[in-house]
Amino acid sequence: MALENVTAARVRSVLVLGGARSGKSAYAQSLAEAHASERLYVATAEPADEEMAARIARHRADRGKSWTTLEEPLKVPQALRSLARPGGVILVDCLTLWLSNLMLAGRDPEAAIARLADAIGALAGPAILVSNEIGMGLVPEHKLGRDFRDWQGRANHKIAQACDAAVFLAAGLPVQLKPAPPPSLRLT
């Protein structure tokens, strides 16, 4: 889906999905920059090592000074409820790290996902949420990996339902998932 199609749809919430290095963060950032000059980036990554700290710094530099950044590894629903407002846009990047943080902290993923979906439904302003689609590959070898993959799939499903629009990126190309016209079957 072209960026202008999301803009034309006048949606309040967008889920941007894709695999690693699919272009989802750049797409979400461009979408936010096309909508509002007041932009808040809710970062869920934590700099657990030097490589991750370098990634975070690179992402921050790529956004430039026109963004405000809030580092929030766990309380994303609360941040959306309290900070979303008309005239601005919130970009949450990413729900995959948020879910990982929750699971590693021993939090209940099901309850947290439900709180996030509820927050999306009550947004006072626009939000774009980025998430990885990780269920299209191999079955993880270890139980924690399988549990994470399953929760990520459930989260993507629930958040896609809560959002007004959903876009999938592959090889840097956006494909509109929602809203989409229903298929028309030819019965002859």
Structure description:
The protein is an alpha/beta fold. It has a single domain (3-177), classed as P-loop containing nucleotide triphosphate hydrolases (Rossmann fold, 3-Layer(aba) Sandwich). Helices cover 45% and strands 22% of the residues. The protein has seven helices and seven strands. The protein has helices spanning 3-9, 24-35, 50-63, 76-83, 95-104, 109-121, 143-162, and strands at 13-18, 38-43, 67-71, 88-93, 127-132, 165-170, 173-178. It has a seven-stranded mixed beta sheet with strand order 3-2-4-5-1-6-7, sandwiched between helices. Helix 5 crosses helix 7 and helix 6 packs parallel to helix 7 (143-162). The longest helix is centred in the last third of the chain and has 20 residues, at 143-162. The protein is globular, with a radius of gyration of 16 Å. The two termini are 31 Å apart.
- Which structural class should the secondary elements be placed in? alpha/beta
CATH architecture: 3-Layer(aba) Sandwich
Cα Rg: 16 Å
Helical stretch count?
7
- Morphology call: globular
CATH superfamily: P-loop containing nucleotide triphosphate hydrolases
Compute the average pLDDT. 91
Major β-sheet strand ordering = 3-2-4-5-1-6-7
In percent, how much strand structure appears in the residues?
15-25%
Order of helices and strands: HEHEHEHEHHEHEE
Write down the CATH topology. Rossmann fold
**Helix fraction by DSSP (H/I, runs of at least 4):** 40-55%
Name of the top-level CATH class: Alpha Beta
Characterize the biggest β-sheet.
7 strands, mixed
- Let me know the number of strands: 7
Low-confidence stretches: none
Number of domains: 1
Ends apart, CA distance between termini: 31 Å
